[in-house]
Amino acid sequence: LLVFSLSGCPRATFAGKKGKLSGDEILNTKFKTSDVLENDEEIKQLNKEISELNESNSEMEAAMVKLQSQISTMEKNLKNIEEENKIIEEQNEALFLELSGLSQALIQSLANIRLPHMEPISEQNFDAYVNTLTDMYTNQECYQNPENKDLLESIKQAVKGIQV
């Protein structure tokens, strides 16, 4: 059995001599106690910053959840408003068709009745004709002469069959 020893090896002897450091040399090494303390302070500071970032991230995540909830609510409200608008548009369309039918019935009923200073009723003068009729019925006291009374009675009879 062979036993090897480092004591006889010239490289080991040189490495051993080189490995012995004096007290001053130990203080000059990279791993001084003050460096370790500085590193410890830096680690504490980094840990504090990490903690602050985690807290900030948590707050941001909570804000995002709240924002997503608000967006979801707004989208639901928008969908409801769009549905309500569609219903209103359909109702307006139905009312427009009804109004169109009523105006055609009024034009047909009053086609033979001429108002003073007006052409016979038509689609072109429909609004003016209706305004004149409205004025005649609102201010009947101005139309008390027999000719106007007959005209108002003829209009009443002509529109009597129109159902609103």
Automatic annotation (TrEMBL):
Keyword Transmembrane in annotation: no
GO molecular function, one term: RNA polymerase II cis-regulatory region sequence-specific DNA binding
Any coiled-coil regions, as ranges: 36-98
Keyword Nucleus attached: yes
Localization (cell): Nucleus
This protein's GO CC annotations: nucleus
Domain of life assignment: Eukaryota
Keywords, sorted A to Z: Coiled coil, Nucleus
Protein name from the UniProt record: MYT1 factor
Annotated organism of origin: Sclerurus mexicanus (tawny-throated leaftosser)
